[in-house]
Task: structure prediction
Amino acid sequence: MSVRLPSGVRERDRREALYDGELFLCAATPATLALAEWAWDRLVAAFPEADPRDVQHAIAGGELFRRLTAVRRSILADPEVKPLVRACLGSLGFDLDGTYFDLLRLRAVPSGGHRDPAARHAYVVHRDTWYANPEAQVNVWLAVRDVTAEEAFAIYPGYYGRPVRNSSERFSYPEWQALGGFQAPDDRKVYPGVEEALDEPGVRVPCRRGEALLFSGTHLHGTAGHDSGRTRLSLEVRTVHADDVVKIRERRRLDNRSRGSALGDYFRAADFAPYPPDGPV
Result:
C-alpha cells in the first residue's frame, strides 16, 4: 500500500481517494505544529520529572496512567481546542463549511505497554465504524513528536472492503457515552474488535512532528506494541463531510453492526455548530 502526498490534489478528489482506501501523508504546517506544541506543553506541565517520552521510566505505571487521563480530560474541556483544530484542518485543505469534527484525542503508547494486561483494550484491532462512527469518517492522525515506524499504529489494507468477523454487535454508543465516552477508563465498556486471525502483518507509517496521516475510518487498524524505549505521543481528530454521510454509508457499510451514532458529538469546522439532529446518519 502506497502513501500519497496531497500536493496538487483537490479536496473533493482527496476525499474520494480516501474512501477508496488510500492514505495521505500531509507535511507539517504552522497550524499542525501549533497544535502539536499546544499538546506538548500540557504534557510537559503534567510530567515535570522528565521528557514526556521518557517519563514512563521515572514514575510508576499507575501514576503515569492517572496523569495521562487528567491531561486527556483537560484537553477535552479546554476552550482553545476547537479553534486550534479548525486551523489545523484548514491548513490541511479541508472544506471547513462542509466538514464536521469530533473532540481531539491524545494517544500515549508506552514502550512495552502491550505486555500490560490492564492495557489490552488499547490494542484491539478494529474499524472505527464498529464504534458507531460514520462510514464517511476520515481520521487525522498527528504526530506530537517524531514517530518511528516501530512506534506507529498498524493499518491492514488487505481488509479494506473485505468483511471480517468481529464483535461490533455488542457495541451501543448510548451505553458507551453513559460510561464516560472515549478516553474515560471504565472496565464495563465494550471494545469491539476482530475475532479471527489476520493474514497480514499490518503497515506502519512513520511521521515527523506535526505531520498528519489521513485515512478512512473504515480501514482495519489498531495500536501496535513497540519496544522503542520511549512513549509514542500523537493526536487524533475524526472528521466527516456532511455531503458524503449517506452516499458513503451505502458504499462502505461492510461488517458494522454497532448501535447508535456518534455524529451527535461532531461540530462544524467553520463555526462549531453541532451536527444537526435532523442531519443524515
In short: Residues 118 and 187 are 10 Å apart (CA to CA). The first strand starts at residue 3 and ends at 4.
